Amino acid sequence: MTGKKSILVLGILGICLAGMAVAAGQEGQADFHEIKMTAKNYDFDPGVITVKKGEKIRLIITATDRDHGIKLKAFDIDQVLKKDDPTIIEFMASKAGTFEFKCSVYCGRGHGKMKGKLVVEE
Predict the structure, then answer these.
(1) Nearest Cα to Cα of residue 75 among 61, 60, 89
(2) pLDDT 10s digits, 17-63
(3) How far apart are CA 59 and CA 118, in angstroms?
(4) Nearest CA to 95 among 48, 54, 56, 57?
(5) Rounded Cα distance, 78 and 99, in Å
(6) Per-residue pLDDT tens for 93-122?
(7) Do the beta carbons of residue 60 and residue 34 sit within 8 Å?
(8) Which helix (H) or strand (E) is 73 found in, with range?
(9) CA angle 33, 39, 43 (to 5 degrees)
């Protein structure tokens, strides 16, 4: 092979490999049902999350006013949410039903009202 043909073949091979790597990265992302949330002022937003049983869930939660927490007892989740630091929580929605989650770090007078629901549909 001449020098120009070798360079062309290597360039095409490089493009193909780069495309495969990007596709593999996107495939990994697609495995999760990703939900972005905020925690602030005694409120989770969204306050109700609906997913399908069997889905892998990735919550990305940012506390915007102070440290908070999230406790989802049904799935053994109890995570501190540091202010302005997105926290990633991954789990399998392995059982159907409606499950309460709540703030697990005392955050002031409205702390007891800081709740939400995870709805896992069949």
Answers:
(1) 89
(2) 455 554 544 444 569 999 999 999 999 999 999 999 999 999 999 99
(3) 11
(4) 54
(5) 14
(6) 999 999 999 999 999 999 999 999 999 999
(7) yes
(8) none
(9) 110
